[in-house]
Amino acid sequence: MTKQIYSSAADAETAFYEALARSDLDAMMAVWSEDDEVVCIHPDGARLVGLAAVRESWRQLFAGGVRLIVRTSHQVASASMLLTVHSVIEHVAVEGDDRLHPPMAATNVYARGAHGWRMVAHHASPLPELASSTPQGDPRVVH
């Protein structure tokens, strides 16, 4: 089987979210680098390192039968010739569930190699709820 060649990080990211929407494990793993130093952190999940651990986590997620609908927005990209980092807001819905789910912050990292662009890291986390007592426009100190 010939692996898809993604000519840009954007193409790889589109394929990632399409595979997620279809719960397609083979398509999902086609997006990932074959380097065993890949990293994946699912929302509220452990840090998974290595292709086998990443594959197993997606297999378990897809085997649960839940179909996710993910729309991304507010992309911030940092790119060089060999590495691209996308920070996005993920708006996640569960097929057949009308509840509004809080958005996620996701960081997707892609590396360019001999066979095109591949994902080397995905980290998604729930966004903290904005404190209602914080006036609009005031800076929020994180550290």
Question: What's the quick description here?
Answer:
This protein has helices at 9-22, 25-31, 51-63; strands at residues 39-41, 47-49, 68-79, 83-94, 104-113, 116-126.
Largest sheet: 6 strands, mixed
| Neighbour order of strands in the largest sheet | 2-1-6-5-4-3
Total helical elements: 3
Mean pLDDT: 87
Task: Kindly name the structural category.
Answer: alpha+beta
CATH C-level class:
Alpha Beta
Strand content: 35-45%
Q: What's the count of strands?
A: 6
List low-confidence stretches: 131-143
Portion in helices: 10-25%
Distance between the termini: 48 Å
Labels describing this entry:
143 residues, alpha+beta, Nuclear Transport Factor 2, Chain: A, 6-stranded mixed sheet, 24% helix, disordered C terminus
Walk me through the structure.
It is a single chain. With 143 residues, this protein is of the alpha+beta class. The protein has a single domain, classed as Roll (Nuclear Transport Factor 2, Chain: A). 24% of the residues lie in helices and 36% in strands. Strands 2-1-6-5-4-3 form a six-stranded mixed sheet. Helix 1 packs antiparallel against helix 2. The longest helix is centred in the first third of the chain and has 14 residues. It starts with 8 loop residues before the first helix and ends in a 17-residue tail after the last strand. The C terminus is likely disordered.
